[in-house]
Amino acid sequence: MFDRIFTSSSESGKPSLLRPRKGVIIGVGQVGMACAYSLLIQDCFDELILQDIAEDKVEGEVLDLIHGMSFLPPTDLKGGTLKNEGKDADMVIITAGAAQKPGESRLELVGRNVNIFKSILADVVKYCPNAILLIVSNPVDIMTYATLKLTGFPKARVIGSGTILDTGRFRSLLGKKFNIDPRSVHGYILGEHGDSEFPVWSLANIGGAKLIPGEWEDLPISEQNELNSVFEEVKNAAYQIIKLKGYTSYAIGLAVTDIVKAILRSQERILTVSSLINGLYGVEDICLSLPTVINEKGILKTVNLSLNEQEQAQLLNSAKVLKEVCDQLKF
Questions:
Q1: Boundary (domain end) residue, out of 134, 160, 186
Q2: If we measure between CA atoms, which residue out of 256, 255, 292 comes closest to residue 273?
Q3: Range of the domain at 170
Q4: 168 labelled as ligand-binding?
Q5: CATH code: domain of residue 208
Q6: Residue 98 marked in a binding site
Q7: Is 112 annotated as belonging to a binding site?
Q8: Where in the numbering of this chain does the Lactate/malate dehydrogenase C-terminal domain appear (predicted)?
Q9: What is the pLDDT of residue 217?
Q10: Catalytic residue among 142, 193, 203, 314
Q11: 67 is catalytic
């Protein structure tokens, strides 16, 4: 049909020298679709598959996005499953998971999400055995650890979004406070993506100038309070956004895209993602966030920061909080 529009080419049917980059997003809720939108407009994949148990919603989301494809770099977008359309994907991004119910404990929520992951990951292992897995579902550190245990994948290929968003919030708020482009603000939020996370004040700087040139205790109380208020705003940001609009989505979509680009383009960027830590700072057999070099292999190496005594104690506390939950899980 419409053959008159096109002319034949002697190169027709010649295989491409470059293999298309294929990604799968499992879960098309607010976070999953923010990821999909950001990945599409930043031209990350050649093929992008959306999967969810709510098949009608998948179809509607795909149609909505396809109608905008004339404004974007080309991507073959479709709904499907790991078994069929998503088979042999380069990356599988998991945003699926249960929402916490009123009165439900964190451990109860984790247990429900682990059960959800068991069925998802069985298909990942079967149909995408060489994929890099990016876990976004909360509690992300625990779900990243569970993914490692359930899949048996190498630790380099199982990555959690970790505190990349918290770090982004930290830099944005400090940039706003000092009227500086946040890309020129350098600082980290490490540990758990949750209540036990902590800022690395000893290394935070703007253009190389340390925010705290000496010891924290030497700062005037007024300045300590100002900086503490920035961190509290970072730590409570999700609660505030959820209270106002019901969910968070845009910023995590952008953060996930940063991780994906670092992998697909082998950028060797340092990002605060969650990965399995063994031995560093005394942390053993748990997933949490430290500055990590990301390339086409996934996790390349972890940066060994010179944390002060207080920060090392905070990191160990974060690991303890996560370990107490993980030790109660059954895989």
A1: 160
A2: 292
A3: 164-326
A4: yes
A5: 3.90.110.10
A6: yes
A7: no
A8: 163-328
A9: 87
A10: 193
A11: no
CB 25 within 8 A of CB 95: yes
Q: Average of pLDDT values for 150-176?
A: 97
Nearest to 132, CA basis, from 114, 149, 162, 156: 156
| CATH code of the domain containing 140 | 3.40.50.720
Q: How far apart are the first and last CA of the chain?
A: 53
Question: Quick one: 148 and 231 in the same domain?
Answer: no
How many Cβ atoms sit within 10 Å of the Cβ of residue 162? 31
Nearest to 135 by CA among 91, 194, 195, 74: 91
Q: Compute the distance between CA of residue 275 and CA of residue 163 in angstroms, rounded to an integer.
A: 11
Model's pTM, two decimal places?
0.93
Distances from the Cα of 223 to the Cα of 119, 177, 218, angstroms = 50, 12, 10
Q: What is the pLDDT of residues 29-80, one digit of tens each?
A: 999 999 999 999 999 999 999 999 999 999 999 999 999 999 999 999 999 9
CA distance 23 to 18: 16
For the chain, the maximum distance between any two Cα atoms, rounded to a whole number of angstroms, is 78
Q: How confident is the model at residue 8 (pLDDT cuts 50, 70, 90)?
A: low
